[in-house]
């Protein structure tokens, strides 16, 4: 029974180490990429009137805009030449993605500060692999 528990702990440690390797190397999502992931459409301001409208909005923040009686959400990029536009469903998904990103950042910070709780290279590692019939030198 102990060998199964040890093997499961080893599997969990490997999974966590893989997760940390894959997630730790990626950068935090940008507002624009998160908006695209949420289903916002990317548009480029081409006319002076479009550029003037984008200039009124805060860069990198979602602004609520009503156009012809419909609610839209607009996120201008930093230089305000491009915007991401979505409706209520896309905005809800955007908020969900933001919340997920905040939780992931907090989890990564906690892992970095406190570790995973598993000793992946300690003396117990060889015993765990032996339980599976593998030889570790």
Give a description of the structure.
- The protein has a four-stranded antiparallel β-sheet with strand order 1-4-3-2.
- It has one domain.
- It has 137 residues and is of the alpha+beta class.
- Residues 17-27 have low confidence and may be disordered.
- 53% of the residues lie in helices and 15% in strands.
- The protein contains five helices and four strands, in the order H-H-E-H-E-E-E-H-H.
Summarize, please.
The protein is of the alpha+beta class and 137 residues long. It is built from 5 helices and 4 strands, in the order H-H-E-H-E-E-E-H-H.
Keywords summarizing the entry:
137 residues; alpha+beta; 4-stranded antiparallel sheet; 5 helices
Proportion in β-strands: 15-25%
Number of strands: 4
- Average pLDDT score: 75
Query: Which parts are unreliable, with pLDDT below 50 for 5 consecutive residues or more?
Result: 17-27
Summarize the main sheet: 4 strands, antiparallel
Residues in helix, % = 40-55%
Strand line-up across the major sheet = 1-4-3-2
* Total number of domains: 1
CA-atom Rg in angstroms: 23 Å
Secondary-structure-derived class: alpha+beta
Supply the number of helical segments. Answer: 5
Order of helices and strands: HHEHEEEHH
